Amino acid sequence: MFYFIGLGLGDAKDITVKGLEIVKKSKRVYLEAYTSILTVGKEKLEEFYGREVILADRDMVETQSDEMFEGSDTEDVSFLVVGDPFGATTHTDLVLRAKEKDLEYRVIHNASIMNAVGCCGLQLYNFGETISIVFWTDTWKPDSFYDKIKRNRDLGMHTLCLLDIKVKEQSIENLMKGKKIFEPPRYMSVNTAAEQLVEIIQRKKEEGEKDLAFTEDTICIGLARIGSETQTIIAATFTDMMTVDIGAPLHSFVIPGELHPLEKDMLKLFAYNDDVKQY
Amino acid sequence: MFYFIGLGLGDAKDITVKGLEIVKKSKRVYLEAYTSILTVGKEKLEEFYGREVILADRDMVETQSDEMFEGSDTEDVSFLVVGDPFGATTHTDLVLRAKEKDLEYRVIHNASIMNAVGCCGLQLYNFGETISIVFWTDTWKPDSFYDKIKRNRDLGMHTLCLLDIKVKEQSIENLMKGKKIFEPPRYMSVNTAAEQLVEIIQRKKEEGEKDLAFTEDTICIGLARIGSETQTIIAATFTDMMTVDIGAPLHSFVIPGELHPLEKDMLKLFAYNDDVKQY
C-alpha cells in the first residue's frame, strides 16, 4: 500500500496515532519537502519515528515517482506531507500515477492551513476562493489575485491568502551556468504580503479606480506557525501589518469580508491595537 | 489549560499523538456529541484513552460551560470535537466564554470534512461558500442554500454541502408534553440530499426559471465515512445519486463547478457508471 500521510502543522507530534503506526511499519518513508514546513526538520522527525526519512524534492515527486512507488504493491511505503495531502498543496497527480500502475493508495488526513485558519475566529464556511500570493521581482509583479479578493469582499466573504515559499531555487546566474547551487529558502512574511497588496491598491488608485477591494485602513489578519506552541495571530490594519513582527515562518494572511458579531469578538482577542479593539 | 482537541474523522486512532498525550493527562475529558460522529462510539474512545469520557450535549456546552471550565486554571481539561474544533462546527462561542473568565485555552487541530473533502480530487481552493442542507418536513422546506449553489456554480466553483444531523431531538408531541424522550438520531444521506435538491430544481422549472444551477444529469459527488477504512466516494448524476447505496453515516455531498482536467481524471476514479467515465 502507498500511503499519503498528513503531518499536520506544528511539530513531529502532530501526526495522528494511525499515521505514526503506518510510518513505523513502512518499508520506506518519504517527506515532501518543497511546499510547506513544520517547525521542526527532518532530523527531529527521524528521531521521533525511530527511522530514516528520505527528502523528496519537487523533481523527485514529479519525475521519479516510479522509484517512490517501488515495492508498494507488496509492502507499505509512506509519503509524508505537511498539513493534509489534499490541503493547500494537493498530490492528486501522484494519486493518478499510482492508479495508472494499479497500485492501491490510502490517505491519512490531518489538519491543513485550509481548515486550521478557523482558529482566528472567522467561520470557515464564510471563506470564498483561496488565493496564493507570490514573491514579486523587479520585473514581475503579478496581481491577478486582486480580482479574486475583490470578488470575495463584494460577496461578503473572507479570503485566505497562502504565501509564497521558495525552496531549492537557483539564481538566474547559476541557472544559466547550469550550476546546481541553490539559494537559501525564502518564506513570505505577512509584512511582504501586506506591502505587495498595498502597492496594488495604490496603483489602482493612481489609475483612477474608485471601488477598491480594501484600503490601507482595512483590518486584516496575520497568522504564524499555526498549530505550534508559538502560534501567533494578529489583527491589524494593512498599514500596521506591513511592520508587525510575528516571528519565524510559516505565515498566512487573511482578508476578512463581512463580519458576524461573534467573528468580531474573536478578532478583538488578537487585536494589534485599539483601532482593532473598537472595530 | 482548557484544550480544544480535534479527533479527526475516522476512529479513535485519528487523534494526533499530541492530542492523545493531553487527553491522558487531563483531569476531565468531554466529548462534544451533537454535531458529528466518528465511526466508533464513546466506549471505544474510553478504552483507547484508558479513561472516562463525559458526553457533552448541546445543552451542556451552551449553558453549563462554567462546570466544564472548572479547575482548568490550575489543571488540564480536554474538550474533544470530531473533525477540527474550528471546522464545520466551530466552538468560538466557548472560546469567548473561556477568555471572559481569563482562562487560557489551546487548540489541537485535526482534519475536518472542510479540508478532507479534497480526497475526492477537487481542489480545495476552487471551493466557494460551504452550505448546510437541513432535513425537510411536510410543512418546512427551506431552499435558501440553492442560491448559494447557483452563485458558486456561476463562478465556476465547487460547493461542499454539509448534511443535517439530528441528535437528541424531541417529537412535537413529547416537546409539548414536556417529556424528555428523545427520537433516535438521524443523519442525512446523499440520497435525501439529492432528492431535496432535485425537488428544488423541479419546482424552479415549474415556476418557469430557465437558468438553473444544475439539472438531474449534472454530476455530483457523494462521500461517506471520509477518513475511515470503509470510506466511500461516488461520482454520479443527481438522478443516480438519489438511489446509490454508500452505506452508514456520516455522508457529505459535493456539487462541482468547472472542472480542471486533473479534477476530471480524479472523479473518474469514483465513477458510478460510464456516464461519469466519459465525462
Could you explain how this protein is built, in words?
The structure is a homodimer of 279-residue chains. Chain A has twelve helices and twelve strands. Chain A is an alpha/beta fold and 279 residues long. Chain A folds into two domains: 2-111, Tetrapyrrole methylase, N-terminal domain (Cobalt-precorrin-4 Transmethylase, domain 1); 114-277, Methyltransferase, Cobalt-precorrin-4 Transmethylase, Domain 2. In chain A, the strands form three sheets. The first copy, chain A, has a five-stranded parallel beta sheet, sandwiched between helices. A five-stranded mixed beta sheet of chain A has the order 6-7-12-10-11. Chain A has a two-stranded antiparallel ribbon with strand order 8-9. The longest helix of chain A has 17 residues, at 190-206. The first copy, chain A, is globular, with a radius of gyration of 20 Å. The model of chain A has no long low-confidence stretch (mean pLDDT 94). Chains A and B meet through α1, α5, α6 and α11 of A and α1, α5, α6 and α11 of B.
